[in-house]
Amino acid sequence: MYLVNRQEMKEIDARAIDQWRFPSLILMENAARSITEALFETYEDLMDRRIIVLCGPGNNGGDGLAVARMLHLKGAKVAVYIVNESSDQKTSIDHGVNREIIDHLSIRVFDIHREGQLRLLKANLNHCDLLIDALFGVGLDRPLSALVTEIIDIANERDLPVVAIDCPSGLNADNGQVEGAVLECTDTLALTLPKVGFYAGRGPDVCGRVQVLDIGIPSEVADSLAVKTSLLTAADAKVKKDKRPADCYKHQFGHVGIIAGSVGMSGAAVLTAQAALRTGAGLVSVLADKRIFHAVSTVMPEAMVRPVQWPSPSALDWLLARANVLCLGPGLGLDEAKEETLRYLLDHGDQPLVLDADGLTLLARLGLDGLKEASRELILTPHPGEFKRLCGESHDPKVSRLEAARAFAEKYRVTLVLKGFQTVVAAADGRAAVNSINSPALATAGAGDVLAGMITALIGQGLSPFEAATTAVALHGQCGRNCADIYGEDSTLAGDLIQEIAKELRRGK
């Protein structure tokens, strides 16, 4: 699913109206109908609630007026407050049409032009059971006025559910930033497509539950715009590859090479290898420190485990001659021998290389100057702390995770998986994706090792690094949700995630 900024959404609307010939009033009516249906589905007792709709002077306010009309005609108790500070009381054309209609109905409509008119709104909010925010939507491109700020402050002080139409008022739909006040919402009903700001800055805190509603704009309209950002959903957890033929053999499904594990961290190598195998890798070879060889090989009879005394160019050459994709770093350690190992791999071979965990710390030590000239595709999977080390002094905490990841991937010509809540995947060509499939169950030791193994396995089976990363991140998130249901968010182990991979892959066929 596309994830759009304000300008992209404006262009999609314009193309739908001007090129696809959808009348704007029809789209507004479709939006109001979808919103009304969503409200009844979300609040089973909607008919018993006292509802206030806050409307601005633009098309978002027009959506709110149409929703108020539909709720009223169904018998709901609705009052409308229209906030318009312009001296001429000018509104958008479609807003004006819906105002004319609603003025002929027995709906209480109040106009607010100045702060002195807020007394009635304050009083009625005390007896309100649901507030619908139709002030600005994604159209806000300026700081809030003192009047609107006071209205938002008054609403936030009340303990009542708030539903935003398209975007919470005060939230920048491009970057999730807030200049002054922002309406804290229980639900956000996004029209046509989700907005970038929902998943950046303050967005996750103020949007509440996000639901995307269809208002009748064909998907071809967004396709024609070539949007480069997407939102990962459950549909993206399905692995996009052909069914295995009856006469297949293991070498057709990738030979994954893993360089991982050290004394006290042998489990990292095991988890990475097991995850790769469960994600469909035909063969997995592990180069493991000789001191942990027995610990790894005993519990991994399906993998080929080779004991190594680091540094060992000969062992790396052996792996480079066989594997078609590599993963370095989980539990590897940070001594000088491991630095030499990474340096050797960066200078030899052309297989895609996934760098995770200690591999990223080693890369930060070596410096990033050589990444742009690397002869292979590199996939980096940092958590926020590792990403900060990679960026060094250039790390700007004010920049959203999405834009920081995109800028890094473009600058260094890598695929970046910036892990954490709403993991971001960014490609060197500017494409990016934000994961919406999250679970606290993933906050467990070894979960990152599992993800690294999954990404590596999918690359080995022919997926591009970006496609492999986005699919693995979505699949990993879905496995986390499944484990939360089975074991609980507090009790999930990384090994539990691996067992769920097989179940999800079967569901996706």
TrEMBL record:
<keyword id="KW-0520">NAD</keyword>
<feature type="binding site">
    <location>
        <position position="169"/>
    </location>
    <ligand>
        <name>K(+)</name>
    </ligand>
</feature>
<comment type="function">
    <text>Bifunctional enzyme that catalyzes the epimerization of the S- and R-forms of NAD(P)HX and the dehydration of the S-form of NAD(P)HX at the expense of ADP, which is converted to AMP. This allows the repair of both epimers of NAD(P)HX, a damaged form of NAD(P)H that is a result of enzymatic or heat-dependent hydration.</text>
</comment>
<feature type="binding site">
    <location>
        <position position="60"/>
    </location>
    <ligand>
        <name>K(+)</name>
    </ligand>
</feature>
<keyword id="KW-0479">Metal-binding</keyword>
<dbReference type="InterPro" id="IPR017953">
    <property type="entry name" value="Carbohydrate_kinase_pred_CS"/>
</dbReference>
<keyword id="KW-0413">Isomerase</keyword>
<keyword id="KW-0630">Potassium</keyword>
<dbReference type="InterPro" id="IPR036652">
    <property type="entry name" value="YjeF_N_dom_sf"/>
</dbReference>
<comment type="function">
    <text>Catalyzes the dehydration of the S-form of NAD(P)HX at the expense of ADP, which is converted to AMP. Together with NAD(P)HX epimerase, which catalyzes the epimerization of the S- and R-forms, the enzyme allows the repair of both epimers of NAD(P)HX, a damaged form of NAD(P)H that is a result of enzymatic or heat-dependent hydration.</text>
</comment>
<keyword id="KW-0456">Lyase</keyword>
<keyword id="KW-0067">ATP-binding</keyword>
<feature type="binding site">
    <location>
        <begin position="137"/>
        <end position="143"/>
    </location>
    <ligand>
        <name>(6S)-NADPHX</name>
    </ligand>
</feature>
<feature type="binding site">
    <location>
        <position position="133"/>
    </location>
    <ligand>
        <name>K(+)</name>
    </ligand>
</feature>
<comment type="subunit">
    <text>Homotetramer.</text>
</comment>
<keyword id="KW-0547">Nucleotide-binding</keyword>
<dbReference type="InterPro" id="IPR000631">
    <property type="entry name" value="CARKD"/>
</dbReference>
<feature type="binding site">
    <location>
        <begin position="419"/>
        <end position="423"/>
    </location>
    <ligand>
        <name>AMP</name>
    </ligand>
</feature>
<comment type="similarity">
    <text>In the N-terminal section; belongs to the NnrE/AIBP family.</text>
</comment>
<dbReference type="InterPro" id="IPR030677">
    <property type="entry name" value="Nnr"/>
</dbReference>
<feature type="binding site">
    <location>
        <position position="449"/>
    </location>
    <ligand>
        <name>(6S)-NADPHX</name>
    </ligand>
</feature>
<feature type="domain" description="YjeF N-terminal">
    <location>
        <begin position="9"/>
        <end position="223"/>
    </location>
</feature>
<dbReference type="InterPro" id="IPR029056">
    <property type="entry name" value="Ribokinase-like"/>
</dbReference>
<feature type="binding site">
    <location>
        <position position="331"/>
    </location>
    <ligand>
        <name>(6S)-NADPHX</name>
    </ligand>
</feature>
<feature type="domain" description="YjeF C-terminal">
    <location>
        <begin position="233"/>
        <end position="508"/>
    </location>
</feature>
<dbReference type="InterPro" id="IPR004443">
    <property type="entry name" value="YjeF_N_dom"/>
</dbReference>
<feature type="binding site">
    <location>
        <position position="166"/>
    </location>
    <ligand>
        <name>(6S)-NADPHX</name>
    </ligand>
</feature>
<feature type="binding site">
    <location>
        <begin position="59"/>
        <end position="63"/>
    </location>
    <ligand>
        <name>(6S)-NADPHX</name>
    </ligand>
</feature>
<feature type="binding site">
    <location>
        <position position="448"/>
    </location>
    <ligand>
        <name>AMP</name>
    </ligand>
</feature>
<protein>
    <recommendedName>
        <fullName>Bifunctional NAD(P)H-hydrate repair enzyme</fullName>
        <ecNumber>4.2.1.136</ecNumber>
        <ecNumber>5.1.99.6</ecNumber>
    </recommendedName>
</protein>
<keyword id="KW-0511">Multifunctional enzyme</keyword>
<dbReference type="Pfam" id="PF03853">
    <property type="entry name" value="YjeF_N"/>
</dbReference>
<feature type="binding site">
    <location>
        <position position="383"/>
    </location>
    <ligand>
        <name>(6S)-NADPHX</name>
    </ligand>
</feature>
<comment type="similarity">
    <text>Belongs to the NnrD/CARKD family.</text>
</comment>
<dbReference type="Pfam" id="PF01256">
    <property type="entry name" value="Carb_kinase"/>
</dbReference>
<keyword id="KW-0521">NADP</keyword>
<feature type="binding site">
    <location>
        <position position="268"/>
    </location>
    <ligand>
        <name>(6S)-NADPHX</name>
    </ligand>
</feature>
